[in-house]
Write a structure and sequence with these properties.
This protein is of the alpha/beta class. Helix content is 42%, strand content 20%. The structure holds nicotinamide-adenine-dinucleotide and (2S)-2-hydroxybutanedioic acid.
């Protein structure tokens, strides 16, 4: 059998979906199918064709197509779901729950029918609850249903640490646990720059300011943009997760996973450090937490649980 290119479907051809498609193509991760609603079929085809016409200039051997027909997405290896409405200034991500739950459910019914073996990455907000909706609708094993929040939240946190110290972003390591809300938990104790704990390099009150800015990092962009939310860093995060799966990289990345006892939570989707490789979420890594860290995580888990209750009734 000839070896075929991988197939990546991106559902939702808006700001994040289109940017994700282009960034994935730029890494030649596979052929890309961009999907949006039938009313937007022509603009979706137009965006895909415009991206495709950039490939000779960039030297990229990938195909990029736009559609509203899920038959065109058949047998995708990875499906990325960005469909849904985004918040505006003054809104919380949780305000999107009812509209986006309906959208994610209908998208997942189509994905289940056409790409039953896909690894599915969910971005639509409120993303912890939307990952739960996707898991319920798809009926796929838990390792194949993965929510995106921690890669982005960690990227923001690391950006601010690098800025603070005026050092390369490449040397900053850290991660953010918990739900994708304002009570997410950046883990200071496990953060370092070139192996040096940040607590040795940055005064405590500046670390606290960085933690706080990271927690509300999504809102900072929403307020600056005025009519939508972040999409460059979210798209880069989705592409890093997709690459980890398609290249079986076994990256340690914080993603939204189904917890069944880990960290003391059950039947809860929330951000935790994991190993991501060719079989999706291959392992949830459990870290020892201090009482203070666990209390912060409990608070975040409670917020996620409250949103999940809205969709479970
Ligand atoms: N989890 C995260 O870290 C994170 C980061 C960024 C954005 N988001 C969320 O991702 C979602 C998309 O954000 P955006 O900025 O790309 O929004 P956007 O409005 O630019 O794009 C959303 C697209 O989804 C499409 N869509 C709606 N219903 C659909 C359906 N049933 N099938 C296919 N497509 C459908 C819309 O037509 C639109 O083109 C929002 O809910 C936003 O809050 C989450
Ligand atoms: O903040 C938002 O509404 C979008 C996204 O969740 C983000 O963190 O940028």
């Amino acid at each position: 059998m000839p070896i075929k290119r991988r197939k990546i479907t991106v559902v939702g051809a808006g700001f994040t979906g289109a940017t994700t498609a282009l960034m994935a193509a730029q890494k030649e991760l596979g052929d890309i199918v961009l999907v949006d609603i039938p009313q937007l079929e022509n603009p979706t085809k137009g965006k895909a064709l415009d991206m495709l016409e950039s490939t000779p200039v960039q030297g990229l051997d990938v195909n990029i197509t736009g559609t509203s027909n899920y038959e065109d997405t058949k047998d995708s290896d990875v499906v990325i779901i960005t469909a849904g409405i985004a918040r505006k200034p003054g809104m919380s991500r949780d305000d999107l729950v009812n509209t986006n739950a309906g959208i994610v459910k209908s998208v997942c019914e189509n994905v289940k029918a056409t790409s039953p073996n896909a690894y599915v990455i969910i971005l639509s907000n409120p993303v912890d609850a939307m990952t739960y909706v996707a898991y319920q609708t798809l009926g796929f094993p838990k390792n194949r249903v993965i929510g995106q929040s921690g890669v982005l939240d960690t990227a923001r946190y690391c950006t601010f640490i690098a800025q603070e110290l005026n050092v390369s972003v490449e040397d900053v390591r850290g991660f953010v646990l918990g739900g994708h809300g304002d009570d997410m938990v950046p883990l200071v104790r496990y953060s370092n720059v070139g192996g040096i704990p940040i607590e040795k390099l940055i005064p405590a009150e500046r670390i606290e300011a960085i933690v706080q800015r990271s927690r509300v990092g999504g809102g900072e962009i929403v307020n600056l943009l005025g009519n939508g939310s972040a999409y460059y860093a979210p798209a880069a995060s989705l592409v890093q997760m997709t690459e980890a799966i398609l290249k079986d990289k076994k990256r340690i990345l914080p993603v939204i996973a189904l917890l069944e006892g880990e960290y003391g939570y059950n039947h809860l989707f929330m951000g935790v450090p994991t190993i991501i490789g060719g079989d999706g979420i291959e392992k949830v890594i459990e870290l020892e937490l201090t009482a203070e860290e666990k209390a912060a995580l409990d608070k975040s888990a409670e917020s996620v649980q409250n949103v999940i209750k809205v969709v479970t009734g």
